[in-house]
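Example with several molecule types.
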Amino acid sequence: MTQETLARTTQTPSALQPILEVRHITKRFPGVLALDDVSVEFLPGQVHAVVGENGAGKSTLMKIMAGAYVPDSGEILLQGERVTFSHPQEALQKGISIIYQEFNLLPERTVAQNIFLGREPSRFGVIDIGKMNENARVLLKEIGVEQFISPTAVVSSLSVAEQQLVEIAKAISFNAKVLIMDEPTAALTSTEVQLLHDLIQRLTSRGLAVIFISHRLVEVFDIAHVITVLKDGKFVKTVNTQDVTTADVVYLMVGRTLDHYFPPLGSPEDFGEVVLRVKNASNHILKNINFTLRKGEVVGIAGLQGSGRTELAQALFGVVPFKTGEIELRGKPIDIRNPSQAIKNGLGFVTEDRKSEGLLPKQPIRDNMLLTVRAIQNIFGVINKNGIRKAPNLVPNLGKQVDVKTDSFDREVQFLSGGNQQKVVLSRWLASDAEVFIFDEPTRGIDVEAKASIHDMIRDLTRQGKAVLMISSELPEVIGMSDRILVMYEGQIAGELPAKSSENEIMLMATGNKPGDVAAAGKE
Amino acid sequence: MATITVSQNKWKQALGRLRIPPVYIFLVITFAVGGLLDQIFADGQIFTNPSIFMNMIVRSVALGIVAVGQTLVIIGASIDLSVAYTISITAVMSSFIMQGDPNNVPQAILIVFAIGAVIGLVNGLLITKLNVNAFIATLGTSLILKGIINGTFSNYTGSIPRSFEAFGYNQIGPIPISILVLLLVVFAGWFLLNRTKFGSHLYGVGGNNEVARLSGLRTDRVLIMAHIICSLTAVLTGLFIVSRLRSGAPWVGPDGIYDLESIATTVVGGTALSGGKGGVWGTLAGVLIFGVLDTVFNQLGVNPYLKTVLRGGIIVLAVASYTYRSKREAA
Amino acid sequence: MTTSTFTSSAGASRILRSVWAAIKKIPPVYPLFFAIFISIGFLGQSYQTMPGILNFLRRAAPLAILAIGEMLVLATGGFDLSIGSIVTLVVLGSSKLLNNDPANAIPSILIMLGFGVLIGLINGTVVSYLKVPSFIATLGMLLLVKGGALYWVGGAPQGYLTDNWRFFGREYIENVPILGRFPVALLILIVIAAFSWFIFHRTNFGKQVLAIGDNVRASQLSGVRVRLVRTMAFVLSAVFAVIGGVLIGGYGGVNVTIGEGLEMQSIAACVVGGVMLTGGRGNVMNVVFGAFTMEAMFNLLNLLGLPKPYKDAVQGLIIIAAVAYIALSTRRKR
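Resulting C-alpha cells for the full complex:
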C-alpha cells in the first residue's frame, strides 16, 4: 500500500484542521534509527491510537511531541504553526500533556500538591493551600472522580487506578489541547479500564485530542477513532478503526499474520499428579484458600485489582506467607517462610512489576539470567567469567530458548526493550529447575510478538511436565491460556471455572458471584 | 474501586491525625527514664530544677539550628558534610572581625553570612551542575574549608564584644534568647517546607527528581537554594557557639561532630535519607533527645568516652525503633 | 561486514577507531593515576627507582585494603563509616593488650580480628534485621567503637607497639629477585586484593553483592539471601579495616586520632575507582588504583611542599575534580 492510498484513508469526512501534526520526523540514537521520516496528523476530538511492537518508535514519537526529545530532523505543527520544544515544560505550556508509562506522582505528597507541583497558587512564594485544594477539587469534579479522590489524600494511600486518575487530572490541568497517554491501562483491571474509557470519551467530546499508546488491541478497538501503525521506526499506515479488523492491524504491525494468539490448551491426558495442594490457607488478606495444581496444566487466576491475586502468589512464594493452613508439594507438607525456601522447594515466581521486582538494571543480561541459579548454589561457589562452571553454555542456551534479541550477553539489561527484559527475567526461572511456576502478569506492557512467544514458552513448560499458575488482569489471556480458571474475590477463591469460560462468567464471579450484578460490574 | 486497607495501629492513627512525628514518644521516654535515673542515682535536679531544664534545651540550640538546614537538604535527597567546618569558619571569622568591638558586629555578621551563602552555592553548583555525588562534593568542600581555616588560624582568635554574648547567655523573661532563636529557626523551616513554593518543590526534587523536572521545576535551582539555606543555618550555629565561647577556634565545628550529628538527628527525627519525606519538627525532637541525654549523662557523671559509646548506641536504637517493623530492606 | 570491501586506508582508520573504542573503555582512574604518578616522578627522584616505587605502594597499601572493604559495602548500596574508628581501636587496643611484651603480638592481632568480625556482624545485623540505614547504623558504630577504644585505654595511648607487632606494616622481605627489598605490607595488599578479586568477581557471593546493590527486592524474590550477603559484606569490610589498622599501626605511631577520616578517604578512593554510591557497581582493581591515586595525590602535595592544612584543601579540590571528571565522562558515554 502506498502513501497516496493511506493519505486518502486518513482524510476523514470532517474537514477538521489537525490540532497537532508531525512531518518527516527522524530521530537517531547511538546505534539505532528510532524514527525514520514519520509523518502523522492528529485531529481534535478524536482518540488516536498509535500501535506497533516494542522498538517500533511509539514512545520516541510521543516523547518528541511532548518535548522530552528533540528530533534530528522534521517538524512539529501545533494548530498549523511550527513549534519547537527544548524542554517538556514548553510543550506543556502550549497544551500538549503527556502521561508516561511509569507513574509520575510523588507518593508522599497529597493529590493537590501533586497536581499543582510547580504551579502552586501563591502570593510572594507563599502557597494558598485552601485555593490549591479547591482548584484540585474542581478539577477532579470536572473529570467526574471527585467522589473517589480527595485533594488532600496522600497519593501512596490511593489505588493504582486512582493514581492514574490523578495523573490525568494533572495532565489536563495544563489546559491541554492534546493528551498523550503511554500505556495508561497497563496496570488496570477491566472495570477500571472502563472508567478510564468513559473519561477519555468525555475529554474528547470537549474537543481534546487524545493520543493513546497501547498493546491491548481489544482496547484500542474499543476506544480509538483512528489507528496509526508504526514498525521499526517507520510509519506504516493510518486507518479508521471502523474500516479494519484486529487481524488487519496485527498484520500491519508485525508484517505477517499471527495465526494464533495462544498455543493450544492442554488435553486431559497431559495432566499428571497433583504437585501443589493448598488447604485452608489464610493470612491477613487471604481467606481460606483451597486449590490444587497438577503437572502439565496452566491454572489461570483472575480477579479484580485488590482481590488478592498478587497476594496469593506472594503467599505461596513466601514473600508474605500464609499464617494458617497447609501447603503440600508433591504430597509432602512444606512450610515456606521466605522466597529462598520457596525456590529450594522448586517454585518459580515471575513478578508483575518487572522494573522494581524483576530486573537488576545495571547488571549484564548474563548475571540477570543466572541470578536464581547462583542464589541456589553455595554462596562461595566459584563461577567463571561467562556464567557458572557446571554449565558453561547455559547463558547462550537460555538466550536461544527465550529468544532474547541482543548482540551480547554483557549488555546491561536496562538497555533492552520491555519484551526482551521480560524474557530475561523468565529465563532466570527456566535455569532454576523450578517445578511450579507462578506468573504474575507475564505479558504486561510488552508487544504482540513477544507476548505470543512468552505464551508459547509457558505452554512449553507444561509440556515438560511443569505446573503453571498464571495471574492476569487481561481476560483474553486468562481464557486463551488456562486449562482451569480460579476466580478471586475479596481475598478468597470465589470459584473455579473450566477452560474456555467466557469473559462474562469470569466477571460475574470476580464481582461477587451474584448474577444480578452484571450491570453493576461494568460500573464499579 | 476495590482497595485493600491494612488495619493500622490505632496509636499511630491518632498520632497521624495530630501530625506529631512518632519520635516525640521516644523523646518523652528518654526524658522520663533519664529523669528517673537522675532521681535514683544523682541529685534529681532534672525534674526539680528549672534552670537545669532550660540548660538542657540550650545544649540543643547549636545542633538544632544546623540540623534544620540539614533536614532541608536531606529532604531534597542531598546531604551536607561541610557544615562542621562552615561552623568553624563562622566562629573564627566573626570573632576575628569583631575584635571585641561592638561596632564591628554588623559587618562581621554580614561577612560570615555571605561566606556561608557562597559555601552553600558552591556545594549546590557542584552537585547540580557538575553532577558530583552530594556526599563526595560536600566532603570535598569540607576538606577545602578545613585546609583554609587550619592554614590561617591555629587557636582562639579575636573575641566578641559583651553585647554579642547576649545571643548565648541572655534571657527574655524566663526564656533564653537562644531557645527563642532555635524555635524561630524551626518554625521558619516548617513554614518554608509546608507553606511556600520552595518547600513544595523541594519535596518534589527529593521525592523524584525526574517527576519534578517533568513538572517544569527548575530542580537545580531548588537544590542550590536548599544548600544555601543549610549553610546559612550552619553560620547561625557558628555565631551562637562563638557567643557562648566568647572567641572562635578552628576546631569548634569538627569537635562537635556537627556534620554527622546533624544528619543523625535528622534521621532520628523521621526524615528519610533517600529524600522527599520528613520535616523539621521531627528533627527538633531528635536534637532534644541528644540534649536530654547530654544532661542526664552530666548529672550521672558518666565518663566522657562512655558518653560517646552511649550516644552511638542510642542513635541506632532511636532509628531502629521505627525502622525495625518496616517490610522493606534497608541499605 | 563481510560484503564490504575497503582500501587499506579505510582499514587503518577502522583499526584506529577500534583502538580508540578500546581506549575509551579504560576506566578513568588509570589515566588519572598515571598522570599524577608521573608528575610525582618528575618532582621526586626517589619515585623513579624501584625501592621508591615499592615504598610508595607500601604506604598506599593500608588505604587500598580499607577501600576494598568499603567497596564491598558500597556495592550493596550501603555505607560503612565505622572503618576509621576500627583502625583507632586496633592501634590503641593492641598497645594495651601487648603490655610491652612481644609474646602478646599474635594473640592481640587475633583478638582484634575477632573484634572486626563482631563489629561487622553487628553492623550487618542492625542494617538487615533492624532495617536501620547503614549510614546511621555505621555512624553509631563509629561513635561506639571510638568511644569504646578510648574508654578502654583511658583516653591516652598505653605503652607502645612491639617490633614484632609492627612487622606487617614496617618490615621488608630481603633479596627478592629484581625487586630487591619487598615490603610485607605490599605483599599483604596483593594477597587481600587477589582474594577480594576472586570472591567479588568469581564467586556467587560477589555477583549477589552487586545484585542486591542494584535491586534488592528483585534479588530477594530471586532467592538471594539478602541479609546473609549484606552481613558478610560488613564483616569483610570490618576485618579488612582491622588488617589495614595493623599495617597503619606498623609504621605509624600510637595516637588517638590515627584512624580519623579514613572512612571518608576510603569512600573517596572507591568513588575515584568508579564505584557508585547507590550500589550495583564495583571493581576491585579499579578501587585499588583509586586508593593509589589518593596516595599519589598526597605525595604530590608533600613534594610541592604544602603545609598540612593546605594539603587538606587541595585534596578536597582534587577529589571533587576527579569525581566530576568521572561523572561527566560516564555521562557522555551514555
